[in-house]
Amino acid sequence: MIEVIVVLSSEGAIGELIAEGHAGFALKGADIVCSAFTVLLRTFARTVEASPGVSWNVRGDRPGCFHVVVSTVSPVVAEQYRGWSEFVLRGFEDLARDFPGQVRIQYGKDSGRSFYGS
How many angstroms separate the CA atoms of 11 and 103, rounded? Predict the structure, then answer.
């Protein structure tokens, strides 16, 4: 199962995100759930990395784990960053709804968002 933990900032954007695991929907390399999740995560990460207004620390300390902590978001890109965060989280939530046995999302308390997955 892909386990996702998200802590949102006071502005509702991603402040910390931990994602790890394998969906287990199909064999590694042929798993459509893992592929969809990876595309969403990778595109989000590359978009943020290309923005000079967002500083974050990536802590991928083991294979299959992505852990990022956002340290600063410039006011110039804050609205864009909230949009990018909303986009990737909606994608993750859709996957968790469609494949509840393969993706689980847990939000930090007081986030205003629900828990998804089994």
Answer: 25
Asked if residue 68 belongs to a domain, the reply is: yes
E strands, 1-118, are 2-8, 14-20, 54-58, 65-73, 103-107
State whether the Cα torsion 112-14-44-38 is positive or negative.
negative
For residue 10, the enclosing domain spans 2-107
Residue 118 in any domain: the answer is no
Counting the structural domains of the chain, the total is 1
36-67 tens-digit pLDDT: 999 999 999 999 999 999 999 888 677 788 99
State the CATH number of the domain containing residue 71: 3.30.70.1490
Q: Give CA–CA dist 18/107, Å, rounded.
A: 11
